[in-house]
Amino acid sequence: MDALLNLIRFTTLPARVKFCPLYESAPNPQKTMTLTLEDIARIAGCSRSTVSRVINGDVNVSVSTRQRVKKVITELNFQPNLAARGLASGQTHILGLIIPLGVVSLFTDPFYPQLIQSISSACSQRDYSIMLWLATPEFERRMIHQILFNGLIDGVIVASMSLNDSIIQSLAESKLPFVAVGRNPNDETTCYVDVDNYNGARMAIEYLYKMGRRRIATIAGPSDVIVGVDRLRGYKAALAELGLPYDPSLVVTSDFSDESGYAAMQKLIEYKPDAVFANSDVMAVAAIRALHDAGFSVPEDVAIVGFDDITLAARSTPPLTTIRQPIDLIGAGVVNMLIDLIEHPATAQRSLVLPTELIIRSSCGEDLLKNSE
Amino acid sequence: MDALLNLIRFTTLPARVKFCPLYESAPNPQKTMTLTLEDIARIAGCSRSTVSRVINGDVNVSVSTRQRVKKVITELNFQPNLAARGLASGQTHILGLIIPLGVVSLFTDPFYPQLIQSISSACSQRDYSIMLWLATPEFERRMIHQILFNGLIDGVIVASMSLNDSIIQSLAESKLPFVAVGRNPNDETTCYVDVDNYNGARMAIEYLYKMGRRRIATIAGPSDVIVGVDRLRGYKAALAELGLPYDPSLVVTSDFSDESGYAAMQKLIEYKPDAVFANSDVMAVAAIRALHDAGFSVPEDVAIVGFDDITLAARSTPPLTTIRQPIDLIGAGVVNMLIDLIEHPATAQRSLVLPTELIIRSSCGEDLLKNSE
DNA sequence: CATCCAATTGGGAGCGCTCTCATACTTAGT
DNA sequence: ACTAAGTATGAGAGCGCTCCCAATTGGATG
Questions:
Q1: In what order do the strands lie in the sheet with B275-278?
Q2: How many helices (H) does chain A have, and how many strands (E)?
Q3: Sheet holding A351-354, edge to edge
Q4: What residues does A192 pair with on adjacent strands?
């Protein structure tokens, strides 16, 4: 029976329409379930327009009326219908979050989950909701269309790793406000929030140098991913500054996964580095495993620095020295930038680069400056 | 106070509207971008109604008209406005996914990210979109209201671990279709998709018995979380079947985190178990670490079985024997059940329990039946 | 040739909201 | 007292869609 009620309410709404003209004066059971502005207006003794003004914070409402209306709204727990609002005003207070599941297997690395969480939390604070699309290649084009043109979304956040992503292109053509997580050097017009990968990498190499290492290798990211490119630039710049030679055999590219980190380290071993800067903590931990399996010890034989500072880093053996990304700030930054872009396009900030931080633990040897748990 | 926050939420939407009246007759940039049914109808030489029929797959359209209209829609890349659709039909094709970030720190365990991914993928296949709410306690009540009463969502998926979740309660009162991930023994009416945790646990214990272990301990989940309860029941049942005594000192509860797994194992060591069944792979790996740190070896001294079969399991040292949860099937199951519930409430299935599978690796000693990489 | 019954199609009302405009009611300035 | 400029409110016209109902068509039938 209950299920039947559900049916009536959610499948065939028009049913209600039939009754309207006939039973207009009779108590309509449908209306008891879903309140409308008109209901509130009737109860508060004013018009729909006035209720709308109160809800939207219009100043031109007398104090007494405002209080009366607010009281009714609170008592009846009224929520304005978002679809109607979106239709009438063109704004839905919904942001799209697109995460292309392309190159990297996203969910083996805790970075993305944490990013999602921080974005979600920032949205809540600004009273927006988020729609999530994990864009698998096969559905990508179709999905993008739906998102861009269905008018349900005020703006989009794209957490794309790869450069020249087709999603970014479509977005750019669409006039829908959007912000990317990670800068795109080929495209100066898109708004972005990024982390200072270049200086993060430099910091890592300088620290390894300070700890006495001279043959510093790196497990780099893919070359079509901007974070990989920037971190490699930082690596090379630091070597140059420190007067160390750049040796291509000490650079192995990878795809951020545990497996590729392990394989990369195996390849590096024959070139006998005394330190390795890995592009992610997941790979750093895999590299430590590879070294152990090959009979080397960390940090005695090889020092390791990771990137990200995921929770795993503090718990590895030995605890991992790493470059921390401020994931919470990325989430907050990207959400705030997008909302500003939607609400005040003229004055909104269009890019933001967040600082990275060196977290010293034990994977590069003991250091009195150690600043972590 | 909470209600006040609600009000604040809807404060300053306006903006765009100010421009409207002035440019009404001038070419309106908004309108050029957004096609409507009427536009398509004009171009295809028919009426709005007919276009609507074509879009919604109504059979009462002649073949020639249908083709003509479809052609125009494709050429102009027309997407019907979802807000208008939602308003007129009462259906938005949007599902809510609520993940309460309560008890457990969700994103240190890859289970939830994988679940999100599988749900997202199942939604795409059924042409639904998802809105994601990570429900932090402080925003929870307010959020729930918005979700339930804003009319933007056709149904809700709740991935709640804890029993007696207030979100489930609100949902139950709301008449909005919803499905829970994980059964709730206190509430027979809610629809759910669950995994056979009871028999999964039994399988684990029986396997340990078969491998010659007799003092089998368990790192259990929290007692207010159904998976913990079910797996503990399975553990006890298996002991009874196998004629092993139940020893409460061999049961330590935990919260699924790495830290609590490590601590639990430390506590268990003094009772000298020769096997441990951990309630999650994350904890199983932590337990192995705790054993190593205490000078024991796995599987020689203590055999370990985990639960989940996350990717980490195959890569641990030694590779972890574990009980696999079919996460993809959970996602697909929960999405399909919810959509069925929305579209055909009378005939929809209301519960689904998926089988678990024993994945034999090396953490319980060598076994000829080993069936994994 | 009139009649009937589909099969198609168009028109209209309405979903619940926002926002302009017109109206009534103030308050102040001269 | 009479206008000028607010302030507070209500009425109305949509937003772009769905769905009902009525109208039109083209056979098939009597």
A1: B251-253, B216-220, B275-278, B303-308, B321-324, B357-359
A2: 16, 12
A3: A351-354, A191-195, A178-181, A155-158, A94-100, A129-135, B129-135, B94-100, B155-158, B178-181, B191-195, B351-354
A4: A180, A351
Least-confidence region, from A73-87, A103-117, A271-285, B150-164: A103-117
Task: Check residue A88 and give its pLDDT.
Answer: 94
Disruptive mutation site among A146, A147, A148, A335 for chain B (greatest number of B CBs within 10 Å): A146
What would the pLDDT profile of B22-81 be if each residue is shown by its tens digit? 222 333 333 345 889 999 999 999 999 999 999 999 999 999 999 999 999 999 989 999
Nearest to A91 among B8, B13, B86 (CB): B13
CA of A201 to C1' of C24 (A): 70
Q: Which residues contact B170 (CB under 8 A, 6 or more apart)?
A: B144, B148
Contacts of B318 (CB under 8 A, 6+ apart): B288, B298, B299, B361, B362, B363
CB-based contact A210:A245 (threshold 8 Å): no
What chain A holds in terms of domains, given with CATH numbers, is 18-80 (1.10.260.40), 94-195+328-354 (3.40.50.2300), 197-325 (3.40.50.2300)
**Helices B197-210/B226-242 angle, 10° precision:** 40
Higher local confidence (pLDDT), A244 or A345: A244
Q: Tell me which DSSP letter residue B80 carries.
A: -
Per-residue pLDDT reduced to its tens digit, A157-169: 999 877 777 888 8
Res. B312: pLDDT tops 70: yes
Residue B15's region, left for phi above 0, alpha for psi from -120 to 50, else beta, is: left
Q: Number of H helices and number of E strands within chain B?
A: 15, 12
Does pLDDT of B185 surpass 70? yes
8 Å CB contact of A10 and B82: no
- What is the spatial distance between Cα B135 and Cα B141, in angstroms, rounded to a whole number? 9
In the 3-class helix/strand/coil scheme, how is B189-225 assigned residue by residue?
A: CCEEEEECHHHHHHHHHHHHHHCCCCCEEEEECCCCE
Q: Whose CA is closest to A359, among A341, A344, A345, A373?
A: A373
Nearest to A159 by CA among A109, A127, A200, A119: A119
Quick one: residue A77, left, alpha or beta (phi over 0 = left, psi -120 to 50 = alpha)? left
Contact A90 B7 (CB under 8 A): no
Chain centroid offset of residue B103 CA: 16
* Confidence (pLDDT) at A270: 96
Please report the pLDDT score of residue B23 as a whole number: 28
Structure tokens at B270: 């003094």
Residue with tokens 């401020």: A326
Q: Nearest-CA residue of chain B relative to A4?
A: B346
Q: Which residues contact A63 (CB under 8 A, 6 or more apart)?
A: none
| pLDDT tens-digit map of A265-296 | 999 999 999 999 999 999 999 999 999 999 99
Query: Which chain A residues are Cβ-neighbours of B128 within 8 angstroms?
Result: none
**Which residues in chain B are contacts of A101 at CB distance < 8 A?**
117
What pLDDT, on the 0 to 100 scale, is given for residue B42? 93
